[in-house]
């Protein structure tokens, strides 16, 4: 997606050879027009999959996932990382190791928001080692629902996430594929 790559070139900050900061338009300040286009693009790629629900993880997955859900005309469910007084009733949960925070945490969704047989699209902001997406897929499958695709805004293709997810049989669609962050420069695959 050329407009996304342009934003990454202009506003992305390479923090290390492993980590890209995009706080100017995705992870802190959010560009609503870009999010709308991202949502439309995911919807275009997955529309034929009969999606019932979009699932993401708080916080940074919510903006692109919400616009995708809007474009597909389906609800969005986001997994919580923090326990909350309002998160009551039976929960579906998974353990996720956070790449950026370097801590293991439990993510959870109220069981009432996912139903057996539903066709689910997972959306997230970044793909690194695939831990977040795997945790979300685990939760979806605990509910008896089916993951029909994984939509990623920025994939770091030099890390093993895509390979792991494909090995598990998931279809992964990424809007920008970063080949390397070496030398402080973002290089894309295509
Ligand atoms: P994974 O679970 O695939 O290892 O990492 C994906 C998660 O970690 C995403 O939900 C994202 O929030 C965060 N993440 C991974 N790599 C980066 C990165 O280079 N930059 C930012 N801003 N977040 C990242």
TrEMBL record:
Any GO CC annotation of this UniProt entry: cytoplasm
Keyword Membrane: yes
Enzyme category, top tier: transferase
Main location: cytoplasm
Residues covered by the Phosphoribosyltransferase domain: 38-157
Sorted UniProt keywords: Cytoplasm, Glycosyltransferase, Membrane, Purine salvage, Transferase, Transmembrane, Transmembrane helix
Compartment(s) of residence: Cytoplasm
GO biological process, one term: purine ribonucleoside salvage
Binding site for 5-phospho-alpha-D-ribose 1-diphosphate: 128-132
GO molecular function per UniProt: xanthine phosphoribosyltransferase activity
Transmembrane residue ranges: 54-78
EC number(s) on file: 2.4.2.22
Catalytic activity reported: XMP + diphosphate = xanthine + 5-phospho-alpha-D-ribose 1-diphosphate
InterPro entries according to UniProt: PRTase-like (IPR029057), PRTase_dom (IPR000836), Pur/Pyrimidine_PRTase (IPR050118), Xanthine_PRibTrfase (IPR010079)
Keyword Mitochondrion: no
CDD domains: PRTases_typeI
Binding, xanthine: 20, 27, 156
Pathway: Purine metabolism; XMP biosynthesis via salvage pathway; XMP from xanthine: step 1/1
Assembly description: Homodimer.
Known function: Converts the preformed base xanthine, a product of nucleic acid breakdown, to xanthosine 5'-monophosphate (XMP), so it can be reused for RNA or DNA synthesis.
PANTHER family named among the record's database cross-references: HYPOXANTHINE/GUANINE PHOSPHORIBOSYLTRANSFERASE, XANTHINE PHOSPHORIBOSYLTRANSFERASE
Family, per entry: Belongs to the purine/pyrimidine phosphoribosyltransferase family. Xpt subfamily.
Protein name in UniProt: Xanthine phosphoribosyltransferase
Organism per entry: Pseudomonas linyingensis
Lineage, highest ranks first: Bacteria, Pseudomonadati, Pseudomonadota, Gammaproteobacteria, Pseudomonadales
Recorded name of the encoding gene: xpt
């Amino acid at each position: 997606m050329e407009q996304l790559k342009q934003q990454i070139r202009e506003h992305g900050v390479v923090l290390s050879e492993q980590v890209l900061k995009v706080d100017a338009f995705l992870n802190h300040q959010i560009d609503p027009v870009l999010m709308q286009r991202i949502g439309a693009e995911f919807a275009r790629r997955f529309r034929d999959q009969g999606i019932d629900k979009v699932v993401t993880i708080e916080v940074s997955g919510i903006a692109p996932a919400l616009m995708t859900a809007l474009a597909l005309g389906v609800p969005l469910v986001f997994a919580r990382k923090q326990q909350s007084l309002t998160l009551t009733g039976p929960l579906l949960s998974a353990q996720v190791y956070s790449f950026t925070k370097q801590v293991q945490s439990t993510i959870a969704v109220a069981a009432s928001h996912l139903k057996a047989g539903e066709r689910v699209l997972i959306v997230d902001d970044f793909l690194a080692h695939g831990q977040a997406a795997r945790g979300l897929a685990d939760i979806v499958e605990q509910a008896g629902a089916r993951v029909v695709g994984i939509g990623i805004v920025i994939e770091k293709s030099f890390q093993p996430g895509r390979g792991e997810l494909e090995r598990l049989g998931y279809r992964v669609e990424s809007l920008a594929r970063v080949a390397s962050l070496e030398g402080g420069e973002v290089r894309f695959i295509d």
